């Protein structure tokens, strides 16, 4: 099942993508589950999905929102693919993590904003993990039972601001740079992490990044266990698992995004997240 968040005539809701349309499960639940996060926290009750009727909306009738518009936490991993490491003897001992603000997020189809203060907007195609069940000190062997599903993330990064200090925070939190969507695929519908799935990023139709999720240095169970050691995880939290080589700053000469560019991130079994770059007004 593909679950998503959207806005229709100014009304936020959530639902399921079915047969080219959208079931408005927020309305169908009669307010019991006002947003996707609350439905996830309830354990994704399948009786609601089974009782819903035909799709109420086409995709052209709604404005998509980030899959989880209101996560309590967005924890991002960096340098997390073997593709990035030319010398495996220098592999990091622990994950490199940083936080992204929910206010920096945009949806599939929304403009990816090049800020006025920089011309070094970059792309990073990544797999997003959506937490389904709260937990603290979660052992790796039980971590996957805390996963609700998976989505796609473009961790748009403003590279010069990212390098102002040793902390990534400024360059990773510009408004309109964190693209998240188009939907969440339930965990049981994908073989992750037992089997890797392909991740490909294209700019204007040209392939820039390609990897397989089995090539993560710190896999999903490890990330969940590690993060839950210092912070309790709760339903709707998002863990974004890092990118591979090929993003603009790694190229010679560097290839940063400019207005009019279109970035597509495709993950096998999930779909395509697409955003066009627009200059900040």
Automatic annotation (TrEMBL):
Keyword set for this entry?
A: Metal-binding
Please list the residue ranges annotated as the Fumarylacetoacetase-like C-terminal domain. Answer: 74-277
Q: What are its GO biological-process terms?
A: small molecule metabolic process
Q: Which InterPro entries match?
A: FAH (IPR051121), Fumarylacetoacetase-like_C (IPR011234), Fumarylacetoacetase_C_sf (IPR036663)
Any one GO MF term held by the record is: metal ion binding
Pfam families with a match to the protein in the record: FAA_hydrolase (PF01557)
SUPFAM superfamilies named among the record's database cross-references? FAH (SSF56529)
The family note in this entry says:
Belongs to the FAH family.
Under what name is this protein listed? 2-keto-4-pentenoate hydratase/2-oxohepta-3-ene-1,7-dioic acid hydratase (Catechol pathway)
User: From which source organism is this entry?
Assistant: Roseicitreum antarcticum
């Amino acid at each position: 099942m593909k679950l998503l968040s959207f806005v229709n005539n100014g009304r936020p809701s959530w639902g399921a993508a079915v047969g080219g349309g959208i079931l408005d499960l927020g309305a169908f639940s009669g307010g019991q589950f006002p947003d996707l996060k609350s439905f996830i926290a309830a354990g994704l009750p399948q009786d609601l999905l089974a009782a819903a009727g035909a799709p109420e909306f086409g995709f052209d009738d709604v404005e998509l929102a980030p899959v989880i518009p209101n996560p309590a936490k967005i924890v991002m991993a960096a340098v997390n693919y073997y593709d990035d490491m030319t010398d495996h003897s220098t592999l990091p001992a622990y994950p490199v993590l940083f936080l992204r603000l929910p206010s920096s997020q945009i949806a599939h189809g929304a403009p990816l904003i090049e800020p006025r203060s920089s011309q070094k907007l970059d792309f990073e195609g990544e797999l997003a993990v959506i937490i389904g069940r709260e937990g603290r000190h979660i052992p790796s062997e039980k971590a996957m039972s805390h996963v609700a599903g998976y989505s796609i993330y473009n961790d748009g990064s403003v590279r010069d601001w990212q390098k102002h200090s040793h902390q990534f925070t400024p360059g990773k939190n510009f408004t309109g740079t964190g693209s998240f969507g188009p939907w969440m695929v339930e965990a049981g519908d994908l073989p992750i992490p037992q089997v890797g799935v392909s991740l490909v990023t294209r700019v204007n139709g040209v392939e820039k990044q390609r990897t397989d999720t089995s090539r993560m240095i710190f896999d999903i169970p490890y990330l969940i266990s590690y993060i839950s050691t210092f912070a309790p995880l709760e339903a709707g939290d998002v863990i974004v698992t890092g990118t591979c080589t090929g993003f603009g700053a790694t190229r010679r000469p560097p290839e940063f995004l400019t207005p009019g560019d279109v970035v597509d991130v495709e993950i096998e079994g999930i779909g395509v997240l697409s955003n066009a770059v627009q200059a900040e007004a």
